[in-house]
Amino acid sequence: MRNLIVIGLASISGFAIISSCGSAVEGKSAKATTPAVEQMITADTALIPHDQFGESVRYGRELMMNTAVLIGPDGSAGKYLGNKMNCTNCHQDAGTKAFSFNLMASHDHYPQYRGREGKVLTLAERVNNCVTRPHNGKPLPLDSKEMVAFLSYFKWLSTFVPKNQPFKGAKNLTVTFPDIAANPQHGQLLYQENCSRCHGPNGEGQWNADKSTYVYPPLWGATAYQPGSSMHRVIKQAEWLKNNMPYDKALPGKPFLTDQEALDIAAFVNNDAIHPRPNPKSFDYPHIVEKAIDYDHGPFADTFSVAQHKYGPYQPIISYWKEKGWKAVY
Ligand code: HEC
Ligand code: HEC
Q1: Tens of pLDDT along 54-103?
Q2: Ligand 2 lined by 151 (C-beta under 6 Å)
Q3: Mutate to test the pocket of ligand 2, among 85, 136, 198 (most ligand atoms within 8 A of CB)
Q4: 133 lines ligand 2 (CB under 6 A)
């Protein structure tokens, strides 16, 4: 299936295109007006240049894969993260996997206005959001060797992306919203059936031999992502689960879970009444009409309950926002 075509583009780059995997469901990118590249794109590490810039790219990729060992709580290059997860746990294949919070075009998309912070962020500041939220850590200095390496890696990744064109897998798959709310109780049953054999009955994950990181990362508890992370939003997580979990059963563009199952499981994993997490230091979205609709912390611009924002049904919220002329983000 991995039929790699590499076309030389510039001196240090090329397109590496994975041939289409059949009748994949289209992601949000399909809504864009420019014609989408109908293939998944990947980066060929053999093309990392053999010079100082290439060294920084290689270190950046290393940081994506072995984040905990390098900059975790006992990190050899600095102690920044509050947990021992790795960036690649969510941005799979070091940010190159299709429909897995793909990072290949991120370098082209920043600086960018972000509603959560209510200001324009640089890519470095956006990296630090993931260091502080899913990794529950403290920000990397913007001029550190590590931050420069992350940025070098993202710049190099972006050389494989056709400019200003959406491509298959750039955005996650979408889920169709059912008329009923996501059901955490049903999610619990599905979790036991599909997830606990790797992530553990208590979402604790599974350590590697020397406990420097995980074979299977934790999903809740003090060592997991904190509530300010996008993974804590039910829709966001369901869209990602659909393409990526169970790890041994889903393939890019070929979901294993149904949309309803993905939503129910995400509702169970993110149910704070039964699943504690590290506390966020502050809450977000200074402008409430920019708040993501599945963000579970008020105040809200509408009169829907916290529970409905978190678990749905989402369609009435989306319709209400549309009527008001506000942009519903999810
Ligand atoms: C628990 C899952 C998780 C982990 C671990 C994680 N991220 Fe993220 N990251 C996300 C989610 C979710 C988003 C938001 C994606 C979206 O809104 O579509 C995101 C967004 C990003 C973005 C912005 C992408 C864009 O184009 O806007 C960057 C850059 C990023 N992460 C880098 C990192 C780095 C570097 C690490 C490791 C230090 C990391 N992330 C660890 C879940 C995670
Ligand atoms: C066969 C083992 C396996 C199964 C089954 C499995 N996962 Fe995972 N999961 C993984 C691995 C491995 C990773 C990290 C992926 C990587 O680093 O490339 C992961 C990562 C994750 C992450 C992102 C990282 C984190 O810890 O927050 C979430 C969320 C997740 N899985 C949820 C689930 C859910 C929900 C199910 C059931 C539908 C499931 N997984 C089933 C192996 C598994």
Answers
A1: 999 999 999 999 999 999 999 999 999 999 999 999 999 999 999 999 99
A2: no
A3: 198
A4: no
User: Does residue 308 have its Cβ closer than 6 Å to ligand 2?
Assistant: no
Whole-structure pTM value = 0.92
Segment 98-116 shows an average pLDDT of 96
Q: Which two tokens stand for residue 318?
A: 């989306």
Q: Grade residue 179 by pLDDT with cuts at 50, 70 and 90.
A: very high
Superfamily of chain region 49-164:
Cytochrome c-like domain (1.10.760.10)
Residue 16: partners with Cβ closer than 8 Å, 6 or more residues away? 4, 5, 6, 41, 42, 43, 44, 160
The angle that helices 123-132 and 145-158 make with each other, rounded to 10 degrees, is 120
Residue in 59, 84, 91, 158 to alter for ligand 1 test, most ligand atoms within 8 A of Cβ: 91
Which one of 3.60.110.10, 3.30.70.980, 3.40.630.30, 1.10.760.10 gives the CATH number of domain 184-269? 1.10.760.10
User: Taking the mean position of all CA atoms in its chain, how far away is CA 31?
Assistant: 20
